[in-house]
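Minutes, project check-in

Agenda point 3 was the complex the collaborators sent over. CS summarized: four entities, 418 residues total, and the question is how they sit relative to each other. Sequences were read into the notes so everyone works from the same version.
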Amino acid sequence: MLQNGIAKSVLNRLPLYLEYLIDLKEIEGYTGYVSATKIATDLELGEVQVRKDLAFVCKSGKPKLGYNLDALTERIKEYLGCNEPKKAIIVGLGKLGSALFGYEGFEKYGIHIVEGFDLENKEYEHIPIKKFNKENLKEFLKNESIDIGIICVPKNVAQEVCDILVEMNISAIWNFAPIRLKVPKNVLVQNENLAYSLSVISSIITNKQ
Amino acid sequence: MLQNGIAKSVLNRLPLYLEYLIDLKEIEGYTGYVSATKIATDLELGEVQVRKDLAFVCKSGKPKLGYNLDALTERIKEYLGCNEPKKAIIVGLGKLGSALFGYEGFEKYGIHIVEGFDLENKEYEHIPIKKFNKENLKEFLKNESIDIGIICVPKNVAQEVCDILVEMNISAIWNFAPIRLKVPKNVLVQNENLAYSLSVISSIITNKQ
DNA sequence: TATTTATCGGTATAAATTTATCGATAAATA
DNA sequence: TATTTATCGATAAATTTATACCGATAAATA
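CS then shared the predicted structure for the full assembly.
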């Protein structure tokens, strides 16, 4: 299925390319042009696949040279929306929520986690976390323009939190609760489940022996 | 590509089915038989897809009724290796590492995180974390049989940690460092990057408006 | 007991994704 | 300037994944 004209599979690889290209410049001091051949070798992907992927966002490949590193990087950033900063909030500051709240790695992609909400009175690195209740959250979302809601609450509360976010016109939800959230079609839900990933690993090594 | 005779796409959905089936029994009190039709509706998947997926692990579907809930649950558990407990360690007890270390959700899939290692002297809920250095880690892995290594260190140390794990014959690595680890073919590496997932969300909402 | 019904599971088809092939092209080299 | 070379980008083929269709079947119902 195509997502805004780009294949899902391609979109999922774009952040990988971006990370790679940024490191290529910043860590390895690479400048000028980079070929699909090199990218493919380094990332252990097919050469043709890389070329096709890049063709989705960038039309500037030159025979014999490859792609202009800076231009390519910029085009992927643009496509991924890194240049249009987004605001996110986290609801549920348990272990995982707190880890995400403090993670600096999202900034690179233009995403700022601006606030956290929790049922209990908590603080994060001496900054008090906002108390979670329906009124509080609604009030906050009324005044701030938030793009992404990150749900890190237990599964029995997740739908309730989701409903508030939807009611306040959030664009997207990143859901860590192991539950299928019910939302209107115009709201994007991305489910993330770390236990599932680990379970897949466990399965593969179980069936290998 | 098939992974031990099962399609990758199918394997990735099995934990989802398992979670669903467990909840169906434990939370909703469901007993007896469950049909692919019901599963598909609840999980918002195609009915045929569910039937095909289940056919990979279970041959016991009955017309008009569906699958025996307990038998199906058991077969998926078996396939995912939940019945053959695995031991894992985490290297790197930063925010994310600590969150994973304390996460109870893995037990359901038969995975026990038995130890954590960090460069700094840390403790987790009053239990001291082992000091990470090459000798320490090697010594530990020599005495304990560990199946899965979880890498949560910064990217510039990740390969070094990986090499130690490989040297000590680990079966699988779950890698949270945004770097492509070099390992021999017999070692399974599963990369996980939360920033990538979030970036994809950001991209979709950017290009929608 | 005959009929209806819901669902399974096999075969066939379609869609998405990956991989292969190759002529065209721009730079590097002779 | 002619030739060689590495890479792009288009077209085609192969593979993987998802969906459609339908006869067979076991339970429920008449």
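Noted in discussion: The helical segments of chain A are 8-26, 36-43, 47-57, 69-80, 95-101, 134-143, 155-167, 194-208.
Follow-up: revisit at the next meeting once the mutant set is ready.
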